[in-house]
């Protein structure tokens, strides 16, 4: 269902520890496969890294209490992000490498990631699925985008290390929020929970190994799990609405492309919002002075 929707919409597909066979099939269908690898190294993970169009490795793991904890990466003997990035890039034969630093509030880790040589750094806010699982680590990423952009831009990097792209995730539900994030300086916005809902997820919080226990078993008496074609139709419809909404939002801004969006196209209706985001304050008509330094 995921591959079918990705083929029909041209979207990239981000999967955690995907099987090499799935990555190969996605490549044959022309889908950009984004592989998320965890702290466990094995033959299948290595093959996934080799086959992926984009490789992401995470610096956090789920703790026993449902919170996020810092995980030591066993791929990296000297605990150096730079070494990890070089290793992933070498195994993937040059595919872009994304370092997922975890919660948006962890600025020190964001600075380390910006100095690592990664092609992009990714930060996560408190998503709807995080609440579903009782995880309370993180904040709204939209309000922090502008500050994170500044953090990355002001981080001193070794000579020859370019500034990485910024990927934001967690809590984004529609095109308006995505366009706002890009206008504030994000390069990529990741949707996670909304596409899952489009596939039929009920956010029950009882995720287990393999098939969803609620849809695969608990709802069997009510008609069972939708076939993959039905799931693909639901996800394709969601992505289609997202595209249509994006075009509508850009038209209201007078823009032809989302890459043209900037804080000047936004307007903050409270002083606090203007102070946090750097968007012009309504009535004042300009960015607040603290953003001009």
Summary of the model, kept short:
The protein has 293 residues and is an alpha/beta fold. It has helices at residues 2-9, 20-28, 43-51, 81-91, 107-114, 128-132, 145-154, 175-183, 193-199, 213-218, 228-253, 271-277, and strands at 13-16, 33-37, 54-58, 60-62, 68-70, 97-103, 120-124, 165-169, 188-190.
Describe this entry's structure for a reader.
This protein is 39% helix and 14% strand. It is α/β, with parallel strands linked by helices. The strands form two sheets. The protein has a seven-stranded parallel sheet. A two-stranded antiparallel sheet has the order 4-5. Helix 2 (20-28) links the parallel strand 1 (13-16) and strand 2.
Which stretches of 5+ consecutive residues score pLDDT under 50? 129-138, 216-222
Give me the side-by-side strand order of the main sheet. 1-2-3-6-7-8-9
Q: What percent strand? A: 5-15%
Query: What is the mean pLDDT?
Result: 79
What's the N-to-C terminus distance? 48 Å
Rounded to an integer in angstroms, the radius of gyration calculated over CA atoms is 20 Å
Strand/helix succession: HEHEHEEEHEHEHHEHEHHHH
Strand elements, count: 9
Sheet of most strands = 7 strands, parallel
Number of helices: 12
Shape: globular
The structure class reads alpha/beta
Helix share bin: 25-40%
């Amino acid at each position: 269902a995921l591959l079918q929707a990705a083929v029909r919409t041209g979207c990239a597909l981000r999967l955690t520890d995907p099987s090499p066979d799935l990555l190969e099939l996605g490549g044959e269908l022309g889908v950009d496969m984004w592989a998320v690898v965890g702290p466990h190294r094995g033959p299948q993970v290595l093959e996934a890294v080799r086959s992926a169009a984009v490789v992401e490795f995470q610096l956090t793991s789920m703790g026993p209490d449902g919170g996020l904890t810092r995980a030591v990466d066993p791929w990296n003997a000297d605990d150096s992000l730079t070494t990890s990035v070089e290793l992933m890039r070498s195994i993937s034969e040059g595919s872009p490498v994304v370092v997922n630093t975890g919660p948006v509030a962890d600025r020190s880790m964001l600075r380390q990631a910006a100095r690592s040589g990664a092609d992009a750094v990714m930060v996560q806010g408190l998503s709807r699925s995080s609440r579903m699982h009782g995880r309370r680590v993180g904040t709204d990423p939209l309000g922090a985008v502008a500050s994170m952009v500044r953090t990355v831009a002001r981080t001193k990097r070794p000579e020859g290390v370019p500034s990485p792209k910024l990927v934001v995730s967690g809590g984004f539900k529609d095109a308006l929020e995505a366009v706002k994030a890009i206008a504030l300086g994000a390069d990529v916005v990741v949707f996670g929970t909304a596409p899952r809902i489009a596939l039929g997820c009920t956010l029950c919080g009882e995720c287990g190994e393999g098939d969803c226990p609620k849809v695969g078993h608990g709802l069997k008496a009510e008609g069972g799990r939708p076939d993959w074609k039905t799931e693909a139709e639901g996800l394709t419809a969601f992505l289609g609405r997202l595209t249509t909404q994006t075009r509508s939002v850009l038209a209201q801004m007078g823009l032809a492309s989302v890459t043209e969006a900037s804080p000047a196209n936004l307007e903050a209706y409270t002083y606090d919002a203007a102070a946090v985001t750097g968007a012009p304050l309504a009535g004042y008509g300009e960015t607040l002075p603290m953003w001009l330094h």
